[in-house]
Every structure is written in structure tokens, then in C-alpha cells.
Amino acid sequence: MFRRHENDRDAPYDGPMVKATGVFKRFGSLEILRGVDFEVQRGEVSVVIGPSGSGKTTFLRCINHLEKVNAGRIYVDGKNVGYREVDGRLHELRDAEVCRNREQIGMVFQNFNLFPHMNVLENITEAPRGVRRIPAAQAKARAHELLDRVGLSDKAKAYPAQLSGGQKQRIAIARALAMDPKLMLFDEPTSALDPELVGEVLNVMKQLARDGMTMVVVTHEMGFAKEVADTVTFMSNGKVVERGTPQEVLSNPQEERTRAFLARAM
Ligand code: ADP
């Protein structure tokens, strides 16, 4: 067994891909996360469900340090994305270090967040070229591979405004994959889509899951959760209420709050 020390960058680490303990997050006086414990194993598809306002998006954003936690610890691949720990105390990392840590985490947002002034190919190659300094030809070749993977080979020269919502989201997934992330975070990736476009995005995500990607997916798509998730976490009121296999949580929930939510959602 290998156990990498927090600050030892070179040693292999075989623990969970995500481990969060006792995470608290406040916005002003509003306490949004109230002691979240959460773990995702390598290769696992972890679906997070729960009522609107329960803190799912906030927690996802804490994982890659887009939001700073007020208390608790979150490790991605054994490393704290936003802090260095010395003798148990947290010291905030410089922005450049946070960015470097964040490179290994792909994120897909509800509203796509594509760069509107760049075409599809430029959207996908921007980070590999700008951040990783990958030569243009190599970045382009990889972008074409990824476009093929999301079924949009013919859209390389299109601009986001010329694409449907489903196509935009598939491009956003390709763009995230271009950085070869270890972990993909999906924040309600199909919520902004017309119903007939949801399937094409879920299909790309299913393929990604089959390819072994570690994924945390906040979604209201219960069918996807049932079919693809290894674990389902139900959050309510800033806490994890229940967690287990889709069979356990969706078909045989133990907690009343989970049952009430599912009765409305399914
Ligand atoms: P969910 O994803 O479960 O719907 P969110 O994490 O989006 O929940 O939101 C939880 C609560 O936190 C909401 O009441 C929301 O208004 C609030 N919130 C989220 N981000 C901010 C912010 N940047 N500033 C203030 N309040 C916020």
C-alpha cells in the first residue's frame, strides 16, 4: 500500500479521488454547508441529488476551490487544492498554485460557459495551449479526437451561438477533457436544456463513465442516477442525509427526507 504524505508530490497515492470531512461553508450569515463528509473512489460515478438550495452546487465548487470552505478539509487525489497544511493548520496557497492544482479537475457548468468569441476548436485548445504550453498542432489533433468522441466532428469551426444547447454542453465536456483531468465535476449539466436535448449530453457522460472517468454529478436526472451511478448521495439543508448505491438510496431510502424528495422528483 502506498500512502502519500500530503506535501510529497512524487509518491503515488492510492486513496480516494475525493475526500471531504466536516466541510462548512457560509455566505455572510447564511450557513450553506453544515458539516459535509463525502468520498469518491477512483473510477466511481458519484451522483449528488437533493432539493434546490440544499448546497449541492456550493459543495461541488468547494471541491475545486472555486469557493473557499470555512471549516473542514477537502482532498482531491490526496491533495488539498487550496491550502498547504503545516502541523494541522491551513495556509492558503498562492493563486498560481491553486490553478495548477485545479488543472487536474474538469468542470462542466449548467450554462456551458463557452467563450463566445472563440470557435469550437479554439474553445477546446485554449487551456492546453495557454496553460500547458502544448504545441498548436498537437492541441488541435487532440481537440479533433475529443470532438469525435462527443459526436461533433463537423463543428470545429462553428461558434457557440451557432450551436444548440446540447451541442454546447458536449463541447464544454470536450473542452474539460482536453486538460486530461483526473476528476470531472458536473453541475446540473442538463438543467438548462430543452428536454429533447438532454439525452445526447447524458449519452456522452455515460460513455465517459464507461471509459472509467471519476465523476461527481449534481443532477435531477434520476434515470441517469439509477443507470450510471455507483453511489448516490442525498443532500438536504447543507448536510449529507443519506448515501449508498442507487438501489439503496433511490429504491429503498432509509430517511424520511429522502423519501419525501424522491416522491416529488420521480
Ligand atoms: P443547490 O445546488 O442544492 O440548489 P446551492 O449550492 O446552489 O444549492 O445554493 C445553496 C444556497 O446558497 C442558496 O440559498 C443560494 O442562494 C446560496 N448561495 C450560493 N452561492 C452564493 C453566493 N455566492 N453568495 C450568497 N449566497 C449564495
TrEMBL record:
Q: Which InterPro entries match?
A: AAA+_ATPase, ABC_ATPase_HisP-typ, ABC_transporter-like_ATP-bd, ABC_transporter-like_CS, MetN_ABC_transporter-like, P-loop_NTPase
Location in or out of the cell: Cell membrane
Which terms in the Gene Ontology molecular function aspect does this entry carry? Answer: ATP binding
Q: Which Gene3D superfamilies match?
A: P-loop containing nucleotide triphosphate hydrolases
Q: Which superkingdom, per the lineage?
A: Bacteria
* Keywords, comma-separated and alphabetical: Amino-acid transport, ATP-binding, Cell membrane, Membrane, Nucleotide-binding, Transport
Coiled coil segments of this chain: none
Return the SUPFAM superfamilies for the record. Answer: P-loop containing nucleoside triphosphate hydrolases (SSF52540)
Q: What is this protein called?
A: Amino acid ABC transporter ATP-binding protein
Q: How does it sit in the membrane?
A: Peripheral membrane protein
